[in-house]
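Weekly structure sync, notes
Attendees: PL (lead), two postdocs, one rotation student
Agenda item 3: pending single-chain targets
PL asked that the sequence for the first pending target be pasted directly into the notes so everyone works from the same version. It is reproduced below exactly as submitted, 324 residues in total.
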Amino acid sequence: MENRTQVTEFILTGLTEDPQLQLILFVIFFTLYAITLLGNVSMIVLIRISTQLHTPMYYFLSHISFVDICCSSVITPNFLCHLVKEKKVISFAGCFTQLYFYGVFATAECYILAIMAYDRYVAICHPLVYLVTISQIKCVQLVVISYITGVVHGLLHIIPASQLFFCGPNIIRNFVCEGPALLQLACSDISLNNLLKFIFIGFTLITTMLIVLTSYICILITILKMHSAKSRKKAFSTCTSHLMVITVFYGCAGFVYAQSQPTKSIYINQIASVLYLVVTPMINPLIYSLRNQEVKVAFRKMLGKRNVFFFIPKTEYCENTSKI
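Predicted structure, written out during the meeting:
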């Protein structure tokens, strides 16, 4: 039998091999990463110190910002280092570590986005039972369940994938260790891995999207029945921001992981990867802050606050809910 050596590292092709273009990309992506950190950290701090934002919606939004920071930090710093290096190498352990942690946070974000849709559904369609349905303890429980689901989901993929034999080639045609592209390099049977990918990623995407779609269909029906134009406008404004974030996140992630042969559409996959790995975490706080009057008002008061505490959503949101 032919002797085969286990691969100990992978080579990432990145987005380009042109040194001058790599320098330009470094400046662009460093700026995007800095904006991502600044925007999401500012959102978390703002929500923590502003009592008027101590509501379930902003509590979930603070965790979206935290997850976006984690997702971006798992991918972008390593990518920036590779842009200034001649040889873009990542170790076997480093590749699977990157793949695992991104899977954890991406899965958690899927479920938190779905929870936010359900929160808006209860607030708009059943405001009288909102305080009971979305209580303090339930908010914490839902977020904890989202993170636990992400951890379990990541393990269910990374453990079988780490048992595969990689004998070469070891070139990943992307700027990140991505599951579909990585599986194509395995010398052993990947049918189990593809099955797990299809079941668990498909289950996560379909389940959370069904929750989002069902919630917003009910919200739309309720909004159309409202007699006050001001109430309709406020409800539409809140829902539009959330739907914009969901569309970008689910659209790009679903497209990449639906590809059975990612090497056949390298550039399309790279563009989609940039969108949901780099761009999406940056635009989320911008969408929620620029389109939300409560966030703008809280931002004006932020400089007057000195102490920052972690909060559990309080019952002050009863007044905001009644206005809807």
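Discussion points:
- Confidence is low (pLDDT under 50) at residues 306-312, 315-324.
- The first helix runs from residue 19 to 49.
Action: rotation student to compare against the earlier draft before next sync.
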